[in-house]
Amino acid sequence: MAEEIFGPFESVEETVKTVNILELEGYSNTNITIFAHGNHADKINDLTDVSVTSLESEEETHDQTFLSKIKKVFLNDIYKTSDIHDQLLKKGLSESQANDYSKKIEAGNILITSQTELKMGNDPTGETPKMTENVKHLYQ
Hints:
Order of helices and strands: EHEHEHHEHHE
Number of helices: 6
Distance between the termini: 24 Å
Radius of gyration: 15 Å
Pfam family, one: YflT
Structural class: alpha/beta
InterPro entries: GSP17M-like_dom (IPR025889)
Helix content: 40-55%
Mean pLDDT: 77
Number of strands: 5
Protein name: General stress protein 17M-like domain-containing protein
Largest sheet: 5 strands, mixed
Low-confidence stretches: 57-63
Strand content: 15-25%
Strand order of the largest sheet: 1-5-2-3-4
């Protein structure tokens, strides 16, 4: 799946505004993921209905119980990871993008990714161009 990248953002307010705009443009909330440092993740999770992946220390991520992992699936809780770089690679970002964005997230910035092929109202074809590099959003 191709992922479109929005950001990085310096504030929760900018992030929430962009998520709202994306949803109005037809992006499904289930296809939007926000990557943030633990400092911002709780507030973003409270203000949006999208998936939030939070950078946490290794101790905090190992302390997650089976019940907390199940809770994340059903209650839109925050997914905590100590390896944000690996999570970005799993989203389809290139190695250089993952390196760059993981450093920015560790510094406190926030990143949004969205599956472009699953935008509501669109029927992708085999000829649909797939974006793999950083793209600035029109409303930023």
